[in-house]
Design brief:
41% of the residues lie in helices and 22% in strands. By secondary structure, it is of the alpha+beta class.
Length: 238
């Protein structure tokens, strides 16, 4: 195998794609997948809503956002995928394989592409599909957390739930939010100005701290989230 491809093998293993394949078989399985790399510039459309997806995309570096634009012109950011995340699993495993959202490069990024056809032709097909189904289950839990966020009526509570999910996932109280303030407002389904004002209030009150895209959920903020039962209680923090 080309030594330049080793890094892509590591990414595929790291995201759980080979979870059911023995380590001794990783190289053979990798060589059967017809892996290619796609590089995108910030703002580039990777896939339009309604397009058919015939490949699995894994974020090698950078980030990608899934967004939906409504006839009114309003934009809702559904998810942001970061390094080692797998894009649109539900689409590739569906019958129609039609994307319900636009996939957009949130910043300059590189993605590993694995054609569905190469998975179907691999002798490891069943094990690969089992791994995809498990990753889809994790993705569904992530979307459940998104529903929990939007179920909160108060803007402050939405922010606390969101940061609580991120800090539990990362294992640290300081996290990087790979969205602009406008994008974060779109993700939380709130007004940008209202979000900026609320973030400033929360910072003054000692609930959070932030500097550009770095956010820290302070002890008082974590206690507020816990006391109000905000955020995930268990399960994958995806």
């Amino acid at each position: 195998m080309n030594t330049g491809m080793i890094k892509y093998l590591e990414t595929i293993v790291g995201c759980g794609f080979f979870h059911h394949i023995s380590k001794s078989d990783w190289i053979e399985a990798f060589e059967q997948l017809e892996v290619t790399l796609r590089t995108c510039r910030k703002g580039e459309i990777i896939c339009h809503m309604g397009d058919t997806l015939e490949a699995v995309y894994i974020v090698e570096d950078g980030s990608v956002r899934a967004e939906k634009t409504y006839p009114s012109g309003d934009v809702h950011i559904v998810s942001v995928y970061e390094e080692d995340d797998v894009l649109a699993l539900g689409v590739i495993l569906s019958r129609r394989k039609t994307s319900p959202v636009d996939l957009v490069a949130n910043e300059d990024c590189r993605m590993i592409m694995i054609p569905r056809q190469s998975m179907e032709g691999s002798r490891y097909r069943d094990r690969l599909m089992n791994a995809l189904i498990e990753m889809l289950a994790d993705e569904n839990i992530r979307q459940m957390h998104k529903i929990e966020i939007l179920a909160e009526r108060g803007l402050r509570d939405r922010v606390l739930v969101y940061l609580n999910v991120l800090t539990r996932k990362s294992g640290t109280n300081t996290v990087t939010v790979k969205m602009s303030r406008e994008q974060l407002a779109q993700y939380l389904c709130v007004n940008r100005s209202a979000l900026s004002n609320e973030l400033s209030k929360m910072k003054r009150e000692g609930l959070i701290d932030f500097q550009k895209d770095q956010f820290t959920l302070l002890q008082a903020g974590l206690k507020a989230a816990t006391d109000q039962g905000l955020g995930p209680d268990s399960g994958e923090e995806g």
